[in-house]
Specification:
Hypothetical protein af1432, seven-stranded mixed beta sheet, Rossmann fold, alpha/beta, 3 domains, eight-stranded mixed beta sheet
């Protein structure tokens, strides 16, 4: 039923009666909370104070004067009859006069235009404040509302009379904050400011501001402290050796020298070189020079991020003053520990801030999975909070070779966006292809040296810096069937060797362990199993034990008995283990090289006299693999693309030894270089190309376009980083 203008005007509430919040007493009585004007002013002042804690260079580039008004204006849409009816209906003591005035409106209808955020967006559009500011206001609850059939003066929003009230509220906010709206230059800056707006709203909704009659101005700084927005207090002038207890290598020194200002830096170097320490020390120097606001260390999986988390925490204890509140980096992934911060109603269990991935990336120091960073450029709910959280940080992207086409496409967009966010991006990889490096940097690489640093500072010329050659070690390569390998590992373990056997699936690892364990026990050999299906606590305990046995300080324990550790890809990365003998199922070349990095890893390790630097690869005949990949590779063909496996097998089948690290780039390029194929290999390649194109399309669809953000769909393609499938569709 259409309402007349008279009925619309009669529903109008004065601004001092328009509630933004309700509050609940200990006795569960629901009382009126702050009015909209008061809450909006608080949020604006929170945003202003938060920006004042940022370095000048970051504010100048991304947070213009007037951004606090955007944050303050987020809830102007609460000055609407449907929202006021909803909040007044929820009060324990009913205001019959107000409810009578609003009886013609249906509060449940709000969902059709995205709630009060939709009204905020429509109201701002009508004020001609530019394209992006209305969208920021509309999406402060995580997504862009659908306003295709609604305008600021639509009857469901209260008509022209209620819109006039919203305009009056804006005028009052401009007056109390002493500013006007800024110009938002592009969609990426809009995402940053949307993040500022949302986080300011979360903080401004906290318990410190709950009492509508309470004084609030003096509580702003306390609220920011409680939310964790405290600048780290660094010990300046520490040398690399003081931070890590060892002297830096040539490659580490050159990366640290190159990454002296914001930009993108790629370090390609072999396993065990200390890439992590080089990246962290470069980040430390940028923090000391106040050219960075924090660190986010991103890895492919929860397993790898858990291990790096421990190392980053040790690093923080060295570089931070004792009174600094950030001695532990937050761990940011779905199963990570949740540190409580005071963040208002969104921080209640089930609220947006309780979703730790959204909050954790805002901490000065965090370690997590790459997907948390990728969401900064994705079309996902609250993705812009990640954008805001990463601005100005050093973002370290480790194990980049482990990402497939879907993740890789988004990663390329992320690296581009991070540069615009005045971040320093440090990319670490042992086995990066030339093609992948070119896409990440948006350049055509020239140098084929290895190790190599590619430096692309924000101001200055691109540089490809070769590093002093690392002395080669020779690894003997033997291809044998599984039965022969079982006999060999038992023989070597009986001699006191520490043996590592890596399978490609958990089921295969479990079956092999059952086969080996009883036989190993009969000859006094310990046998263990490690894979991703253990509970986190069980896996951590097992990892701790086996790192002691196989680790750098395990001289005494190694000498006690021979051991066999069976595992999956969890053994490839982040665990500091050193085997005397390695057996591995065939895998893509980069995975094989990672596994070889666990063989004779530490120079000073004492080994049995019979030990040889040797790896056995269990692999089928190439001709058979090409003809019938599933039969030849078994379950491995479900983990990695048959095309990649066949290309890898072709590279490795004739090898009797490899020289590392000098052959790393050669082996990678031989495996992944584009080439013409025929017959069955052409069919395998076609399967890869079809799936790769599909994944890239999905990735591009998932990227945020024009600053808009959609609600989380019920079914969204999982980021490939959450599964161990790095070369399924390379």
């Amino acid at each position: 039923m259409q309402k007349s203008p008279e009925s619309l005007d009669s529903s109008l509430l004065p601004l001092n009666q328009c509630l933004a919040k309700s509050r609940k007493t200990d006795g569960n009585i629901v009382l009126p909370g702050r009015i909209v004007l008061s809450h909006c002013q608080i949020v604006g002042e929170v945003a202003r104070a938060m920006m004042m804690r940022m370095p000048d260079w970051l504010r100048a580039e991304l947070f213009p004067e007037g951004a606090e008004l955007i944050a303050a204006a987020h809830d102007i849409g609460k000055v609407s009859p449907t929202f006021q009816k909803k909040i007044y209906t929820a009060l324990s003591q009913k205001n019959e006069a107000v409810l009578s005035a609003l009886k013609a409106f249906n509060a449940d209808a709000e969902k059709s235009w995205g709630g009060h955020g939709g009204v905020s967006q429509a109201a701002a559009y009508a004020q001609n404040v530019g394209k992006y500011i209305p969208e920021i206001l509309g999406q402060h609850h995580g997504f862009s509302p659908n306003l295709t059939i609604y305008q600021a003066a639509s009857e469901v929003f209260g008509g022209q009379a209620w819109q006039a009230q919203r305009i009056e509220l804006l005028m009052q906010l401009k007056q109390v904050l002493g500013t006007d709206f800024p110009i938002v230059k592009d969609a990426l800056q809009a995402r940053v400011l949307a993040g500022l707006t949302t986080v300011s709203d979360w903080i401004g909704s906290g318990s410190l501001f709950e009492d509508p009659d309470g004084e609030w101005q003096s509580k702003i700084e306390q609220a920011l402290d409680a939310a964790g927005f405290i600048q780290p207090q660094l010990k300046s002038g520490l040398s690399f050796s003081e931070v890590f207890d060892f002297t830096p290598k040539a490659a580490q020194i050159k990366l640290i020298e190159a990454a002296s200002q914001p930009g993108v830096y790629v370090l390609e170097a072999p396993m065990g070189l200390g890439k992590t320490e080089a990246a962290l020390y470069a980040a430390y120097q940028l923090l000391c020079k106040k050219l960075a606001t924090g660190i986010y260390f991103a890895l492919p999986t929860q397993l790898t991020s858990d291990k790096i988390h421990e190392r980053v925490n040790t690093f923080l204890t060295r570089i931070l003053n004792d009174e600094s509140p950030h001695k532990q980096a937050l761990l940011v992934h779905g199963n990570a520990w949740l540190k409580q911060f005071e963040m208002g109603e969104e921080g209640n269990p089930g609220g947006a801030w309780f979703a730790q991935g959204k909050r954790g990336i805002l901490a000065p120091f965090a370690v997590g999975t790459i997907d948390q960073a990728l969401m900064a450029v994705m079309n996902v709910k609250h993705g812009f909070v990640r954008t805001f959280g990463l601005a100005g940080k050093v973002v370290i992207l480790d194990e980049v070779h482990s990402y497939d086409s879907f993740t890789g496409t988004i990663l390329d967009a992320l690296v581009k966006a991070l540069r615009q966010l005045h971040c320093t991006v440090i990319i670490l990889s042992a086995t990066l292809t030339q093609e992948r490096r070119a896409k990440l940097l948006g350049i055509t690489p020239i140098s084929t040296a290895y190790p190599l640093i590619t430096a692309q500072p924000n101001t200055g010329e691109l540089a490809e810096v070769s590093v002093e050659l690392i002395p080669d070690v020779s690894v003997a390569i033997v291809h044998q069937p599984e039965a022969n390998a079982i006999a060999e590992v038992l023989r070597r373990a009986a001699e006191g060797q520490q043996v590592l056997w890596i399978e490609n699936t958990v089921n295969e690892a479990q079956a092999l362990y059952k086969n080996l364990a009883a036989r190993a026990s009969e000859i006094g050999v310990a046998c263990g199993l490690l894979h991703s299906r253990y509970t986190k606590a069980d896996r951590a305990a097992r990892e701790s034990d086996w790192v002691i046995y196989f680790g750098k300080g395990g001289t005494e324990t190694r000498a006690q008995q021979g051991r066999i550790l069976v595992g999956t890809q969890v053994l490839e990365q982040s665990l500091d283990i050193d085997a005397d003998f390695l057996v591995t199922r065939i895998a893509p070349t980069d995975m094989l090289l990672q596994r070889l990095g666990r063989l004779w890893r530490h120079e000073k390790t004492r080994r049995p006299q019979t030990a040889q630097r040797e790896a056995w690869i269990i692999s089928p005949d190439l001709a058979t693999a090409i003809t019938s990949s599933e039969l030849a590779f078994g379950a491995t063909a479900k983990v990695y693309a048959p095309y990649v496996l066949c290309r890898s097998l072709k590279v490795w089948q004739g090898l009797t030894q490899v020289c590392l690290p000098s052959q790393i780039r050669e082996l990678i390029e031989k495996t992944y270089a584009v080439q013409d194929e025929s017959e069955q290999m052409a069919r395998y390649l076609y399967q890869v190309e079809i799936m790769r194109a599909k994944l890239e399309r999905l990735a591009l669809l998932g990227l945020s376009q024009g600053g808009t953000t959609q609600p989380n769909p019920k079914k969204r393609p999982k980021l490939a980083t959450m599964n161990w499938n790095p070369r399924k569709y390379f």
